[in-house]
Amino acid sequence: MIIERGIQRHQLTFFLNVFNRITDKPIGHLGGVSEGGLMLFSHLPFLVDATFDLRHKLPGQVIDLKARSLWSYEDVTPHHYDSGFVLYEPPVEYRVLIRSLRQYFSFQPWQAPA
């Protein structure tokens, strides 16, 4: 199955932990985000086409997500995996997180001081 990205993905230069919402165990690190999905880096592959309850723990905030895995491949680093997910009805807090990350990691055009 070929899945084409409809929304530009923004790469992160640092990693945010992602947890299993049910067990509260860490399952990976956020590797990329978009309005409707995310990519995780993990030590184990994810079952493709399965639904997962995910949780981001941020300072002073928890964001719960329900996601379906689309793909999971071994990374170039042995025993590491990259997995892509589509989100079911992402909450407003997730959209705010994406906007914040885009702003933080974007290079703004330089303007000469007035």
- How do the helices and strands follow one another from N- to C-terminus? EEEEEEH
Shape: globular
Please give the largest β-sheet: 6 strands, antiparallel, barrel
Report the uncertain regions. 10-14
Helix content: 10-25%
User: Structural class, from secondary structure content?
Assistant: mainly beta
**How do the strands line up in the largest sheet?**
1-2-3-6-5-4
Indicate the CATH architecture.
Beta Barrel
Tell me how many strands there are: 6
- Average pLDDT value? 83
DSSP strand (E) fraction? over 45%
Number of domains: 1
- CATH fold descriptor: Thrombin, subunit H
Can you identify the CATH superfamily?
Answer: predicted glycosyltransferase like domains
| N-to-C span | 54 Å
Structure characterization notes:
The chain is mainly β and 114 residues long. It has a single domain, classed as Beta Barrel (Thrombin, subunit H), CATH 2.40.10. 12% of the residues lie in helices and 49% in strands. The chain contains one helix and six strands. Strands 1-2-3-6-5-4 form a six-stranded antiparallel barrel. A hairpin with a 2-residue loop joins strand 4 and strand 5 (61-74). This is PilZ domain-containing protein.
